[in-house]
Design a protein that fits this description.
By secondary structure, the protein is an alpha/beta fold. It is 37% helix and 16% strand. A hairpin with a 4-residue loop joins strand 19 and strand 20. The chain is elongated, with a radius of gyration of 54 Å.
């Protein structure tokens, strides 16, 4: 038994220690420090009730999981009663009487405006989870903590939607208070940055009646813009849509986009409100649906239904999540400050007259609590909670579509990737920013149309677009107005009218319109083209269609579509026949360098053929003067292919084949060019330079009502030298008269008019360069009109297709047969060396190669002379003598029955070659020189004589008679002389 006592004592000791520790912890728990915190919300609306329930749940659950915290937040609630003064009074009461260290609230931006000043004075942080107006940031109070997003952060997501669906104008509908006003400058600048015009700003009072709302909506309905951005809270927002649905503004063609202020509250709206908002788009901050969020929604719904059984709100919105995170952040920040003196320092008022504001004390821990809040970071229900520049920041927004009983997500927007279909599609490695509508899911638009609304329609109080057209006397192919006095109707036709009709028919939607002539009932114009464009600016016409040129000064009053004709202003002048009738016309087809090159090559080819044929062809032998004449005669006779000399060398034949080809091309080209010069009219403009017109003081013309008048003035023409024409006939008459006879020397007009005129008078007039750049014909619409982009795209579709060609053929006919595009047969250029240098190069290389080959063979044959010991001059003389001799080894100097041996053998008879082998003659004995030609012995010509033993010549000589036929074949007939 004694052994058990020590164990019992040990147990009793630890039991007493445990009891002491438990008692100490209980005492410590009971000694927590209460810290008063104010809550200012509107408890009679869903937003206030949701915020209050989330704040109380946050503190209850936070301290349940953080039991070791020494501080406890004690909530002091006040109802602001949806009143700015009520909110300020509540804040003043909390600071002065409850000495709260921080205030959670208020629920709206207008209420926060005055409360921020109180917080700054008392150094009490004002923490709002629903005051989102960007204008609050301008107050620059460090004690204002925005535990929510600035409204301006959602603007990039809204502009991305506009880019995706290519809307070009919008109307902003916003509430008339600090919350509504704050977003206006940011949204306006952002839309202008993407070329979207904010055509109208509709401001609605927070206390507007239903009749006032309807009146404003009817104003919007009368406008052509159909894209509306709605920036307001409940209950004004649902009332607006109820009235819009009632008057028919929730049907086809309308687009409604909600900012996050109303989108975040969709879950709090009644089924009736949701039913009136079908097809509406909205953006709201993206909150990942984590397990913590899902669990919180279940707990919150149970608690909320217990606290507010009459409220039909089914789940908390983003403002509730921010309220929950703000309360947790404040609890953490207070704990980090420690057990400091949570008291206020009373202010001493020395004035006799004092107010409650003068008596506000200053929190002793305010600065420390503020710094603690700014440094607090944690993972909250809404995501990462961290204050930057006094507010939260978000990088993602969700795009939702109101369908059925609630909303449905159709896409997301992030700062890095733009519009994406799902958040799982984010590519962290890609910097591609997308605004493609393909990344947005299927959207049910108001009225459930099968197409994307274009964002604008014709005003409902107008049936058709009023299209102004010019009234003019001439050039009716472009626009022609026919007046029917009997029916009091007008008919408008022309090239420009058909193009506009084709463009409007190619639009994906129907646009009714009617043409209204800009003229008097008797068919006279009411003004020029500038006056007509100005009518669009005055809103008398909805558009102008006709031969209206796009120029800078007109663009100040109207927006033009892309041009549908060629652009530019050109000068048109008469042309004259410049056919030359001088004696030396035959030299003009070829340029001087080609003439010189051809002559040199004729002589060079003759020389080359002489070198190749001299030793083997009797036709290229004889006295020096005869040989020189043969060179020139042979070479130039090839020009007409009349040469009669035989060519027996293969190298010479190769050279001649190439040379014949060159001569054939050269002669044919010469013949064609000369024929053109002698037969075709050589039309040249009478004036080629605008400076010549000014210098000589010629009269110039322009079309009446055209902007060309201003162009001529800018070109420093004398205004007294201007003459006006109205039609092609008048223009032709003025040009035919000439400047000196009451006409003009040149006319300036746009290319479409000039081409039409040239097509009718191509043999008399021509356009002269340069062409001065202008933008061509275009359709004019009011400035900022949403139709301009659509019509411009339709213009491209029409001009790039076959339809444009058909319209041009219908009004202007087929292109004429004038030899150039300007409608005149202007002089052709002379043929130059550039066209033949390749042929001359080939001929020259072939000839030089042939010379090298024949000279190499000659020197090789007489290499004993080349390698001899004689002097150079002696070698040259010897080689020249040898070159002048006949090459007896060549077949032309052998008898028919003598085999070729490659060596020189004596000929059996004296052979005489006819110098004209083409002649049909038979040589007799009297024609045969026995002493040889050119003073050379007969033995040198291959003749052989018989001698007696005594060495005297035998009288018996056997000469030969050479017969030549037409094929230049020779027959040698031996004859015997009589004794």
């Amino acid at each position: 038994m004694r052994k058990d006592f020590p164990h019992l004592g040990f147990v009793l000791f630890f039991l007493s220690v445990w009891i002491s520790l438990s008692t100490g912890m209980a005492m410590a728990k009971n000694e927590t420090i209460p810290v008063n915190v104010g809550v200012v919300l509107d408890f009679n609306i869903s937003l206030g009730r949701i915020g209050m329930s989330c704040i109380s749940m946050a503190l209850s659950e936070f301290y349940a999981s953080h039991g070791n915290y020494k501080t406890r937040l004690v909530l002091k609630t006040r109802d602001s009663r949806r009143d700015v003064v009520g909110a300020a009074a509540a804040a003043l009461d909390l600071i002065q009487n409850e000495e709260v260290q921080a205030i959670l609230g208020p629920g709206s931006s207008p209420q926060a405006n005055f409360m921020i000043g109180l917080g700054e004075k008392a150094q009490v942080p004002i923490i709002s989870f629903s005051a989102t107006s960007p204008s609050l940031s301008s107050l620059r109070s460090q004690y204002f903590i925005r535990a929510t997003l600035n409204d301006s952060t959602q603007i990039p997501a809204i502009t991305a939607i506009f880019q995706a669906f290519e809307w070009r104008e919008s109307v902003l509908i916003y509430v008339d208070n600090e919350y509504g006003d704050g977003i206006v400058p940011y949204l306006t600048d952002a839309l202008q940055g993407i070329n979207v015009r904010l055509t109208y700003r509709s401001v609605i009072s927070p206390v507007a009646s239903d009749d006032q709302i309807s009146e404003e909506l009817y104003k919007l309905m009368a406008k052509q813009t159909r894209v509306f951005i709605v920036h307001m809270f409940t209950p004004l927002g649902p009332r607006l849509f109820a009235k819009a649905d009632e008057i028919g503004m929730m049907g086809e063609g309308y687009v409604w986009i909600l900012t996050d202020g109303l989108t975040d509250l969709l879950t709090t709206l009644s089924p009736t409100d949701i039913n009136s908002m079908q097809g509406v788009l909205g953006v709201k901050p993206y909150v990942p649906s984590t397990k913590d969020v899902q669990s919180f929604r279940v707990r919150w719904k149970k608690k909320f239904q217990q606290d507010y059984p009459l409220d039909e709100t089914s789940e908390p919105n983003i403002f509730g999540l921010w309220a929950y995170d703000a309360a947790c952040a404040l609890a953490m920040a207070v704990e980090k400050v420690g057990t400091a003196n949570f008291s206020f320092q009373k202010s001493n008022t020395s004035n006799n007259i004092s107010t409650d504001l003068d008596a506000i004390g200053v929190s002793q821990i305010g600065p420390d609590l503020l710094q603690s809040l700014l440094s607090t970071k944690f993972k909250g229900l809404s995501g990462d909670f961290q204050i930057f520049d006094g507010q939260l920041h978000s990088t993602a927004f969700q795009i939702v579509n109101v369908i059925g009983k609630g909303e449905r997500g159709v896409g997301f927007w992030t700062q890095k990737n733009g519009i994406i279909r799902k958040m799982s599609f984010i590519d962290t490695n890609s910097n591609t920013y997308s605004t493609s509508k393909d990344n947005i899911g299927a959207i049910v638009w108001p009225g459930e149309p099968t197409y994307v609304p274009k964002g604008w329609v014709l005003p409902v109080n107008e049936n058709k677009l009023r299209i102004g057209v010019p009234v003019k006397d001439g050039f009716s192919e472009f626009v022609k107005v026919t007046w029917d006095a009997n029916n009091n109707k007008t008919q408008v036709t022309g090239y420009c009218i058909d193009v506009f009709d084709a463009v409007m028919n190619s639009l994906p939607y129907a646009v009714p319109y009617e043409y209204i002539p800009f003229g008097t009932p008797d068919g006279k114009p009411l003004g020029n083209y500038n006056d007509l464009i100005y009518q669009v600016f005055l809103k008398k016409y909805d558009a102008v269609v006709g031969d209206t040129t796009i120029v800078a000064n007109r663009s100040r009053y109207a927006d033009f579509t892309l041009p549908y004709t060629e652009s530019g202003v050109s000068m048109i002048v008469p042309i004259k026949d410049n056919k030359s009738k001088r004696a030396w016309t035959f030299l003009k087809p070829l340029t001087l360098d080609l003439w010189m090159t051809s002559a040199c090559f004729f002589v060079f080819i003759g020389f080359v053929i002489w070198v190749l044929e001299h030793r083997i062809n009797e036709d290229f032998r004889g006295p020096p003067s005869h040989q020189v004449g043969t060179i020139f005669w042979f070479s130039f006779s090839t020009m007409v292919f009349t040469q009669k000399e035989r060519i027996v060398s293969n190298l010479a034949r190769v050279v001649m084949i190439i040379w014949f080809f060159v001569v054939l091309i050269l002669t044919q080209s010469y013949t064609a060019s000369l024929t053109s010069m002698l037969t075709v009219q050589q039309l040249q403009p009478t004036v080629t330079d605008i400076n010549e017109l000014r210098a000589k003081g010629y009269y110039v013309g322009y079309q009446q009502g055209s902007f060309v008048l201003g162009f001529l003035k800018r070109m420093n023409f004398d205004e007294s030298k201007f003459r006006i024409y109205n039609s092609p006939e008048e223009l032709a008459d003025l040009l035919s008269k000439g400047s000196a006879n009451g006409g003009i020397a040149a006319a300036f007009d746009e290319i479409p008019y000039m081409k039409l005129f040239i097509s009718q008078h191509c043999s008399k007039y021509t356009m002269v360069q340069p062409t001065y750049k202008f933008d061509g014909f275009g359709f004019a619409f009011p400035r900022g009109s949403p139709m301009v982009p659509d019509v411009s795209r339709a213009v491209l579709n029409v001009t790039e297709g076959d339809q444009m060609t058909k319209i041009e053929k219908e009004w202007f006919g087929k292109p004429n047969s004038c030899s150039d595009e300007n409608g005149s047969s202007l002089s052709s250029n002379n043929i130059g060396l550039d066209s033949f240098w390749g042929l001359f190069l080939i001929t020259g290389l072939t000839s030089v190669l042939a010379l090298i080959i024949v000279l190499a063979m000659f020197l090789h044959k007489h290499r004993d002379v080349v390698t001899g010991e004689n002097s150079v001059s002696t070698k040259i003389k010897t080689l020249a003598t040898l070159f002048d001799e006949k090459d007896r080894s060549f077949h032309t100097f052998r008898l028919p029955d003598q085999p070729y041996s490659g060596s020189i053998e004596p000929m059996p008879a004296v052979t005489n070659f006819s110098p004209r082998p083409s002649t049909f003659s038979t040589q007799t004995n009297n024609d045969i020189p026995f002493s040889g030609e050119q003073g050379t012995s007969s033995s040198e010509h291959g003749g052989r004589s018989s001698t007696t033993p005594g060495g005297q010549s035998s009288p018996a000589i056997v000469p030969t008679v050479e017969l030549a036929n037409s094929n230049q074949e020779r027959t040698i007939i031996p004859t015997r002389a009589s004794h």
